[in-house]
Design goal:
alpha+beta, three-stranded antiparallel β-sheet, 5 helices
Length: 340
């Protein structure tokens, strides 16, 4: 064999190894997807599960023997001996940033932001009811009933066992956005905004249901009146829940919300550009720039020009609606700050 032919053969073999490696990598990342060969799926990296005739995982998970991992491939779903690194096991894409460095699935129905890096941030997002997080879904969350499989294993979920506890300890929704607040409380009426005697104690949010959608509007009481949540109206006497000391400490205790850029940036503790919210019509067009000046965190809010949206991964204003602004996303926080 001549030297040129030998070199060509080596190149073809190298290309073949790359292609096979890519195919194996993509297959082994699969989780909760039924394999047509033997109607099984990997439930976790060490468990498999049977699928019904509709290719839907059903029945109890079956654990592989010690030293074996679940692998889905051309021979079906099998328990194979674990290699030294465990890299051949399925269900290993949980808590890994997607290819666009926008998000990472953290559980079957939750995700976190990556902000243009390979590192999962201190963030918590949840999918809408009936949706699951899939690392390859352009909308972050896909409809399970339509066959979208979650990237993470159900075995790693913590929400199923803590539902009863979290329901009783759920935090009060933020009043920074009237629409988001009303969508959270889902009850018609008037609600107090805050406890600052000079500002938020004079405000209230009125929630109403219009054509099946919760609508919220924030109002300010006239003159020197305060809003009384007990009476449900503006009154002259300051309610006992209001405090005159709140305003004097706002520079150090202001709630970290996106409507308060300084407090927001204090929560971020890092210079850079950050997203404001998930509302496609308003906050998805905005972003906040955080910077440290004379030892104090400062923030400035900006709005993208025209119909552009802020993309948290590329950190620029773009024409495409970010996946974080999809209707499939129910809620999102970053460093403890609610992104409305």
């Amino acid at each position: 064999m001549s030297h040129p032919q030998h070199r060509l053969l080596l190149r073809l073999l190298a290309l073949l190894f790359v292609i096979v490696g890519c195919l194996v990598s993509s297959t082994r990342a699969t989780c909760n997807v039924c394999n047509a060969v033997n109607s099984l799926t990997c439930y976790s990296s060490t468990q498999m599960q049977a699928c019904n005739a509709s290719a839907t995982p059903t029945g109890p998970p079956i654990t592989c023997p010690t030293g074996y991992v679940c692998v889905s491939g051309s021979s079906g779903v099998l328990c194979d001996p674990e290699d030294s690194t465990g890299s051949q096991a399925d269900c290993q894409e949980c808590n890994k940033c997607d290819s666009t460095q926008t998000f990472a699935c953290t559980e079957t129905g939750t995700f976190a932001l990556c902000l243009g890096t390979d590192t999962v941030q201190d963030s918590m997002g949840s999918c809408a009811d009936g949706y699951v997080c899939n690392i390859n879904d352009t909308q972050i969350c896909g409809l399970a009933a339509s066959g979208v499989a979650p990237t993470c294993s159900y075995a790693d979920d913590t929400t199923t066992s803590t539902t009863s506890t979290t329901a009783t300890t759920a935090t009060t929704p933020s009043t920074s956005s009237a629409a988001t607040y009303c969508a959270a409380v889902q009850s018609q009426g008037k609600y107090a905004v805050g406890n600052d005697a000079y500002t938020s104690c004079r405000q209230y949010i009125e929630c109403s249901l219009v054509n099946g959608k919760w609508i919220g509007q924030k109002y300010t009481c006239p003159g020197a009146l305060y809003f009384s949540s007990t009476a449900g109206l503006c009154v002259s006497a300051m309610p006992s829940t209001c405090s005159t000391s709140v305003s004097s400490t706002t520079t150090t205790t202001a709630a970290p919300t996106t409507s308060n850029p300084e407090a927001y940036c204090k929560a971020m503790q890092s210079e850079g550009y950050y997203p404001v919210g998930t509302d496609a019509s308003t906050t998805c067009h905005q972003y906040i720039y955080c910077f440290l000046l004379s030892g104090t965190w400062n923030g400035q809010m900006y709005t993208c020009p025209g119909n552009l949206y802020y993309n948290s991964a590329s950190k620029i204003c773009a024409s495409a609606l970010p996946s974080t602004c999809s209707a499939t996303v129910a809620s999102l926080t970053l460093n403890g700050v609610v992104l409305d």
